[in-house]
Amino acid sequence: MSGHAEVKVKIPFGNKYLDAIFSVPEKKSTYGVILTHGAGGDMNFPHLLSLATYLASRGVLCLRFTCKGLNVAYRTKAFKTVVEYLKLSDDYKLYGVFLAGRSMGSRAAASLIRQLSQNDDDDDDDDFIRGLICLSYPLHRPKLQSKLRDEDLLFISCPVLFVSGSADEMCEKQLLEGVASKMKAPKKIHWIDKANHGMAVKGRTTDDVMEEINAQVFSWLKENVELEHK
After folding, report:
1. InterPro entries attached here (predicted)?
2. Which of 1, 66, 89, 140 has its CA 20 to 30 A from that of 8?
3. What is this structure's pTM?
4. What is the CATH number of the domain that holds 45?
5. What are 197-228's pLDDT values in tens digits?
6. The domain containing residue 16 runs over which residues?
7. Quick check: is 123 in a domain?
């Protein structure tokens, strides 16, 4: 484990800018993770900050960004802008990135991956994006299990990691397992025992829960990057 540097950037988006922060490992990184927040909060939401710090100190470049707005299409467009920004960056030449989001941020990431996979002219974008990390994916509204937000997940073919609480009021365990069984993508679900949508668990500290989430994300990333280099 080693240290890392934080670099603030402003990414042009339409006629405004998205605030973003790179967590840069000491050694040159070949893979990166782009992270964004849920419907509330911003890029400094404690879970994102914790994950970015954990990954960067283990050699994975992270870029987290803020995009306020409750419209998934708008959030998806912002995510695409950030992916393109990183892809064209001269400072960080990466082989590929993994898209990660918390709650609504993971919906935007899934929506973008589906869009790109359906655009034949964006083939190289497709190669650049190596996987999807969904933290507390909001599969349905609370108490509205009849309407599942699974349309993007079923069309994705890159590897997907879900980290969800077994007591998440927006992601019933059996329902996510049912969706996962229909997905064509290689997928893994890690359940945080008794955690709610905000990943709070009675009797456990936030740091303790974050340590579990971070370790799961890192080991899954390692597995997927190693698979590609065999």
Report:
1. AB_hydrolase_fold (IPR029058), KANL3/Tex30_Abhydrolase (IPR046879), NSL3/Tex30 (IPR026555)
2. 1
3. 0.94
4. 3.40.50.1820
5. 999 999 999 999 999 999 999 999 999 986 55
6. 4-118+128-228
7. no
